[in-house]
Amino acid sequence: MHYAEREALLLAPYAMHAKDSDGRCTAEPDHPYRSPYQRDRDRITHSAAYRRLSHKTQVFTGDLAMWGTGGDYHRTRLTHTLEVASVARTVARTLRLNEDLVEALALAHDVGHPPFGHAGEELLNERLATCGGFNHNRQALRIFERLERRYADREGLNLTAEVLQGQRERGTKPARTAEQLAPQRDQQGDTPLLEAQVVDAADSIAYDAHDADDALEIGLLTLDDLEQSWLWREAVARVRVEFAALPEQDLRRAAIRELIDRQVGDLVTQSQKRIEGSGIDSVRAVRATPTLIQHTEELAEGKLELESLLFRRVYRHPEVLAHRVEARAALTAAFDRCAEEVERLPPPLPQIAREESPERAVADHISSLTDRAVLESWRRATAG
After folding, report:
1. Which among 19, 66, 118, 122 counts the fewest CB atoms within 10 Å?
2. How far apart are CA 345 and CA 62, in angstroms?
């Protein structure tokens, strides 16, 4: 069965059907058994930038020695990305949206992150203050459109217009801090596709759950600390209904599961009501309608309460901030060293230095590195 026939049977009229795609910058013939969005997903998965996410910070640096733990439980950018894709696919299937597009958008959403997460983004943004700044969402577009070299006859990955537009709409937002940024109209006044809205919501759900989970594992939070959040208290209460007594580790993992399930269930139910109430029947109508993929007001307030707690107790924890100081020193040294040898950077960076600016070329290079590569280079340089 051709993908267009399959989508016609399974997808809602307001979903983004691949046959209606605006295509690619460089036209390509149809694939015999993969839809355009499946091909986008595969191109992103096979990219170098995507693979490097396995060694990039989510919240806690991947340098385990810095945390005094021999375990490797906490998330990286890659495992976060996979969790976002998992949640987003579930929501998309339930709402009869295009799962292939959702998965491509989810796998793409953090590809532009530099080493050490937001600490790295802040430093690069400062260094590029006079030439446009640095934003990880916009950096992903640079990767997809120019920096990745997977084909002999062109730059970039030649992704579909819908995946690029979804990432471009994310790029209009400031960097996420404590609160998850809700889907919003872009600078042209259009609302993002429902598939893009789902990925934004899934990103928020994944953050809330796994940042709490990782902080508990490392010891930055206790179960008692999380009792300040009614969402957490509710998740624990639901676990207790099924299991009267559990060891702390089992309780924690069961509560994390319930926390995710509660948010996903609320999002699906409320979004379905909003979709049905809006009367939308096409992608054009979605673009002209305010955001539809949303939580209930009660749960949205609960999420903000939990995220505020995580911001105070985890993201601003003295140990986390201390590790960011070391990360910043390592990144500063790497940036300065590369700035002195721009012409020795791998292609196409010397050309970018001439066409745009040396700082932009250096940022393109630094943002492609992993935490480990930056730290090892810095420690070798300072050892003597």
Report:
1. 19
2. 25
Amino acid residing at 174: P
Answer for the pair 4, 18: CB distance below 8 angstroms, yes or no: yes
Express each pLDDT in 241-255 by its tens digit: 888 788 888 999 999
Residue 53 CB neighbours (<10 A):
21
d(C-alpha 139, C-alpha 363), whole Å: 10
Rg (CA), the chain: 21
CA 284 to chain centre: 26
Give residue-wise pLDDT tens across range 273-316: 999 999 999 999 999 999 999 999 999 999 999 999 999 999 88
Instruction: Give the span between the Cα atoms of 381 and 317, in whole angstroms.
Output: 28
Q: Which of 49-58, 175-184, 298-307, 352-361 has the lowest mean pLDDT?
A: 175-184
Q: What is residue 56's DSSP assignment?
A: S
Closest CA to 309 of 203, 208, 210: 208
In angstroms, rounded to a whole number, what is the distance separating the alpha carbons of residues 312 and 316? 5
Query: Domain range spanning residue 79?
Result: 3-383
